[in-house]
Amino acid sequence: MTIVILIVIILGGIWFASKAKTPSIIDNTDNATSTTDTLVSTMPADGSYELIASATKVEWTGTKSLIADYKDVGTIGLKEGSFAVAEGKITTGKIVFDMKTIAGEETSNKVMPIANLGKHLQSADFFDVVKFPTATFNLTRAEVVGGSNGGTFIFTGDLELKGVKNEVQFPVKFSQNLSGQTLMTGEFEIDRTKWDIKYGSTKFFQDLGDNVIADEVNVKFEATAEVK
User: 55-70: b or e for each residue (b if 16 or more CB lie within 10 Å)?
Assistant: First the structure.
């Protein structure tokens, strides 16, 4: 009888121990949230907007005409920017670039330090930022592309750079993220010589060899805007 009781006690202890050591499995699948902030192309709502400088990136790319795959890439800081929307139409717009911040981030030149690229661009050879510390784009016309709800416009306006003003035209796409922020992206190309930036251009200099710098400069931007 004593042996039977001991066996029951031992088996019972093993059963309780196994239940205590078995962890509960909690399925959090239904509670998981995605961190992807999906962008939805949309027209910005009516109102006045300001661009947030700290949440805006302006990137430029330059190349050398006679060297395959050569490129210099860098950034320009935003000083300020704004636009207004009324009845689904963009009525005004202005972007001011801080040319004193122009810098290089990537170069195919293996000899020149990247910091020197920015200094050279700031010099009188290129943008002469001491004399011309800002560049300004003033919107003159914004045309909707692809229907009233597409969120894509063709911007036309005057770009003033180094004291010279020329008209530029480029597409701009508006979207909204899940946080409700209004985003705008655009890309355009300019012929720098039209703004009196002649350094390394075959239009003005001969016998440059591999130092020929392409006249075309690509500029693209991603900006975040908020209602004033």
Answer: ebebebbbbbbeeeeb
